[in-house]
Protein: Nucleoside phosphorylase domain-containing protein
Amino acid sequence: MNSVDSYYIGWIAALPIERAAATAVLDQRHEEPKDFKQHPTDPNSYTWGQIGKHNIVIASLPSGIYGTISAAATATSLLTSLPQIRIGLLVGIAGGIARPHKAQDIRLGDVVVSQPKGESGGVIQYDLGKAKAGGKWELRDSLNRLPPVLLQALSSLQEEHEVSPSKIPDILHDMWRAYPQMAESKGYNPGYVHQGFENDRLFKPAHNHIGGGTCTECDPSWEIEREPRNSTNPKIHYGVIASGNTLVKDAISRDLILEATGEECVCFEMEAAGIVDIFPCLVIRGICDYADSHKNDRWQRYASATAAAYTKEFLNWVLVTQLRDTPRALDVLQI
Structure:
């Protein structure tokens, strides 16, 4: 248990709050293995632990340095120091693409998971490609080809959720009991708890944010009416994730990008496109905003928590024997 060779899963977070949520859902936290020899070129710091039967090592991007390039550097350094890693988990927050009129009713705090669709491996890079006739965009070829061990676990968990509710609410409550301060709000820093339905507002694309840290001054007549939910339990959505180095926080630009890609994407984020070509990686995102001008930080901690909680539930469906037989990430590395 104290050997570095027993750690097969690399968990990558971009933000400190995402790493905090990841650490909080560990069943056990481990000391650094005595036989771990960090490569001289690897600047990462690591958190070691266990979820269920799996040993996991967690890394995060350097503070304040985000995007695909930083994510790629973090993943590459991890694999340099930990060549026995089989699979990756990229877990954190994202801007949701809510389209209630198309039955894509994504809310703040919900969880989005990358899943192959058609020719897409589950992630597309929206800011790298070439223009085609008709204003469409030819995207990079099929990012994120998931290994069978991840696809099998996804299928098993989706089947389970058809007959039984997700364990995310239970995992969140365990987190709050173990770390009470995570359930507290401190000044302008809301806790890792649901922020209230009244603070989850989706506006029509033409309505820009009026100003300030909340939408108090935004015109309610521009708000999109949605069916009320009777529970704060997050819902889980599977689909294609749009990734790139451009922070999307304008609804018109958001919708133009989606139209150009020709994909029915479920969220925008800024790291996956830098990782998935060099690391067999499942992308799991908690929704903290709607990628529009009304974007603020209020839901980021809770979204980090729901993404981490889903990841913990997911790992219980990853078969230990199948993971052990999965090729090392370095052996399927694409340069």
Notes: The CA atoms of residues 203 and 221 lie 9 Å apart.
